[in-house]
Amino acid sequence: QVQLVESGGDSVQAGGSLRLSCAASGNTRSTNFMAWFRQPPGKEREGVAAIHTRFGGTLYVDSVKGRFTISQDNAKNTVYLQMNSLAPEDTAMYYCASDLRSGSWLSPGGYNYWGQGTQVTVSS
Predict the structure, then answer these.
(1) Bridge pairing between strands 18-26 and 46-52
(2) What residues have CB less than 8 Å from 111, skipping those under 6 apart?
């Protein structure tokens, strides 16, 4: 079992920045990928960014490339999402996920563990 706790969500104005954190605990040795997803109100959950925890490779959805950066601190078992140049369309509940079992890096259905989410609201 792996437990994930997100933090860092807040309300900001367009153009601002936030850094989300996802702290993992439990059997983290089995974790291969960690990823950030988001779900705007009334919409489906979408993959934002993922990282291979051993080799450091990353993948981003096109809409955040050049603005968001996923990174990890293995000593702290924590993954971060640095979000710059935020826009109102980035408003969503952001979730951390780990342990990809199947599918692509940004496919929500393939991840085994999920956090409770942290809210990001961007006003224009």
Answers:
(1) unpaired
(2) 33, 35, 97, 98, 99, 100, 101
Beta bridge pairs of residue 100? 111
Q: Does residue 66 come out as left (phi exceeding 0), alpha (psi in the -120 to 50 range) or beta?
A: left
pLDDT tens profile 54-67: 999 999 999 999 99
Single out the residue of 57, 34, 56 nearest to residue 47, CA to CA.
34
CA distance 79 to 62: 20
Cβ-contact 41, 51 below 8 angstroms: no
Output the CA–CA distances (angstroms, integers) from residue 103 to 47, 52, 110, in the order listed.
Answer: 12, 14, 5
Between the two ends of the chain, the Cα-to-Cα distance in Å is: 40
pLDDT at 123: 98
